[in-house]
Design brief:
The chain is of the alpha/beta class. Helix content is 41%, strand content 18%. It folds into 3 domains: 238 residues, 2-enoyl-CoA Hydratase, Chain A, domain 1; 200 residues, 2-enoyl-CoA Hydratase, Chain A, domain 1 (Alpha-Beta Complex); 37 residues, no CATH class.
Length: 513
């Protein structure tokens, strides 16, 4: 019978082999591409010496692949800033990180444990997709991962970091997660790679055009954040997690109070005249804690801004029209972005602050045919179903569907403030004057002077905020300089809010996807 020493020696040899991944040659090839190995990535991501690996000695049931321990993915748990985290990292040095039966089962198990323990899960994606040689077993394992992603949705934060190809099956799991971080130049997401497109369609397609970070950040909206290097990606994950609770029954981490104070400088950035533009980022940086704003999907749907910030140390979500881009109008892309962001905040107990300067949602033949009504309705649905504290501030315009959709009292906002310069109406003032006073303008000797007079009368009679306040649709008209102070006061009061969800009596609603 073998001695303890012999058995321990055998164990250590197997662990050493597992830690070598696909071997020294494959590791060097990975480094020559400017990429880290799976275990190097985990080491850089997690707190020092905190990683504990499981299923390290799993092998494929396919005989020719059984020599590789871990089956192309490293799974385990550790900490980030001393908070529990589960992580899996696909190992491109073993069969290109392809997803086989046991590979998929390891990831599914990792997600299950994260849900059971209430810890965020982070996936480091570097995979050519399903392993062709394992056929339907690989597809079945992929399906198990996808189901676990759905089960975990809204229970724990799920973050995918794309540090290599995510092809086919390897692209769908990230798409089901809460946030995708892509590394420019090495991170790709596509339903199938360029070589397969060439084989199927005879077309030469570059990886960047097919699924690069820039394309997914600007056009498809699949990527929430893009970074230049892997090291930057790992630091960014740590930053993002600092805004998020570990699960849906916790509150987000709170930092030290920065105090309530007036912000008179905000008036320097928001022109009274709604025809003049400005960048809402300047306003956000004044109202919320200094340097705390973390924008989500910065390059997609840019007419409306969404992201996390801190307000007197509390983590909040922000949705804000940006007049600097397409007048701040809701459109198809911004509608999708905002609706999903609101639902994430609602799932994870993050209060929502809405800054409104919104004309009517975008109009036009192209947007109409592509479904702008349906996409704008997603925003309305998200606001109406959410039960988190919701505070809205109307800075300037709140017109028609833009007024209703952007966190109005009618969709469930707890408190609505407005600046005295706010314009609230069914139509923009000029369009309304053109319609209401068409005959008077036709008869006027001095049409320009009459137009100015009617415009002034319309604003005074129909679109000033005091009318909405008199109906109780606005809780308080505030001086712009008081905006930060008033939001903080409201937030402190609303943090103890509890609202019964209809989901306790139904399966779920039917959002207009």
């Amino acid at each position: 019978m073998a001695s303890y020493d012999e058995k321990i020696r055998e164990l250590r040899e197997k662990i050493k082999k597992a830690e070598l991944g696909g071997g020294i040659e494959k590791t060097e090839k990975q480094h020559k591409k400017g990429k880290y190995t799976a275990r190097e990535r985990i080491e850089k991501l997690l707190d020092k010496d905190s990683f504990v690996e499981f299923d390290q000695l799993i092998t494929s049931r396919v005989p020719e692949f059984s020599e590789f321990y871990s089956d192309g993915v490293v799974t385990g748990y550790g900490t980030i800033n001393e908070r529990g985290i589960f992580v899996y990292a696909q190992d491109a040095t073993i069969l290109g990180g392809s997803l086989g039966e046991m590979h998929g089962k390891k990831i599914a198990k990792c997600i299950e444990l994260a849900v059971k323990t209430g810890c965020p899960i982070i996936g480091l994606i570097d995979s050519g997709g399903a392993r062709i040689q394992e056929g339907v077993d690989a597809l079945a394992a992929a399906g198990e991962i996808l189901r676990r992603n759905v089960i975990a949705s809204g229970v724990i934060p799920q973050i995918a970091v794309i540090v290599g190809p995510g092809a086919g099956i390897a692209a769908y799991s990230p798409a089901l997660q809460d946030f995708i971080i892509m590394v420019k130049g090495i991170g790709y997401l596509f339903t199938t790679g360029p070589s397969v497109v060439k084989s199927m369609l005879g077309e030469d397609v570059s990886p960047d055009d097919l699924g690069g970070a820039i394309m997914h950040a600007e056009k498809s909206g699949t990527a929430h954040f893009i970074v230049d290097t892997e090291d930057e990606a790992f630091m960014f994950v740590r930053k993002l997690l600092s805004y998020l609770p570990s699960n849906n029954v916790e509150l987000p981490p709170k930092t030290s109070s920065t105090g309530e104070y007036d912000v008179p400088e905000v008036m320097d950035y928001v022109p009274v005249d709604s025809d003049e533009t400005y960048d809402i980022h300047d306003v956000i940086n004044i109202i919320f804690d200094k340097d705390s704003f973390l924008e989500v999907q910065e390059f997609f749907g840019k007419s409306v801004v969404a992201g996390f910030a801190r307000l007197d140390g509390w983590v909040v979500g922000i949705v804000a029209n940006n007049p600097a881009v397409n007048l701040g109008m809701l459109n198809i892309d911004s509608g999708d972005k905002v609706a999903r962001f609101i639902r994430f905040c609602d799932a994870f107990n993050i209060p929502l602050i809405t800054l409104v300067d919104s004309p009517h949602p975008v109009v036009g033949k192209n947007e109409a045919s592509r479904g702008v009504i349906r996409h704008t309705a997603k925003v309305m649905y998200a606001y109406a179903e959410s039960t988190i504290p919701k505070i809205t501030v109307i800075l300037r315009r709140a017109i028609g569907g833009g007024y209703i959709a952007m966190g109005s009292k009618h969709l469930g906002a707890d408190l609505v403030f407005a600046w005295p310069t706010a314009e609230i109406a069914v139509l923009e003032d000029k369009a309304a004057v053109d319609i209401l006073y068409r005959r008077e303008l036709e008869k006027a000797e001095n049409k320009e002077e009459m137009y100015r007079k009617l415009l002034s009368e319309y604003r005074e009679k129909y679109s000033n905020p005091y009318i909405a306040a008199s109906r109780g649709y606005i809780d308080k008209i505030i001086e712009p300089s008081q905006t930060r102070r008033k939001i903080i006061s409201a937030l402190k009061m609303l943090m103890i809010k509890y609202e019964l969800k209809l989901e306790e009596f139904r399966k779920h609603g039917n959002i207009p996807l």
